[in-house]
Amino acid sequence: MRPAALPPSRWDFDPASWPEDDCVAAGADLEPPTIIDAYQRGAFPMPHEDLLLWWSPLRRGILLPGDLRISRSLTRSMRRFQTSVDQSFVEVVEACADPRRSGAWIDERMRDAYVQLHHLGWAHSVETRDTGGRLVGGLYGLAVGGLFAGESMFHHETDASKVALVELSRRWGDGLIDTQWSTPHLTSLGVTEVDRAAYLATIKTLVHQPPRDAW
Fold it and tell me: Is residue 100 predicted with pLDDT exceeding 90?
């Protein structure tokens, strides 16, 4: 499914006005044009309590084409699982939003917004299943031109989310995968950091490329 055309956003995400802080704005809404315009300009939503906040990290985590590191143990895990795309989007989001997870931040507003974007062809999931077909891991995010903006991932079995990332990287080819922030876990997989200015320069044309035929 090709992403649906969207009207202009009612809000202006202007990087020139952003503070020297990871959090760059508050308010606005979670309508599809708002979210897509924000990603095209380098920002993404993440709520805090009742506030809708918008973020553009000063140090951005990215996975460049060809940088994914696949260890021997991960190679073995890849043989234990099967992958699919866009078969269980809602289930993946709900697993990522599980309030029992440490640092859970995906509330009902976020869930509904990204499910709507999925129906419009902008948001996608990669699922990992065991040999019995049970969903045991996955990730979801937005595909905007040549940028895949990862939102969250989960696993119920060791390496299940890593296998989903391998599948995403394979499908995304020479496009850029945005992980928002970097972590030691992501660094071990090949994710690197760039400063905000470099990230914004990188995505400036990338987000306006034709949609990838990855799904």
Answer: no
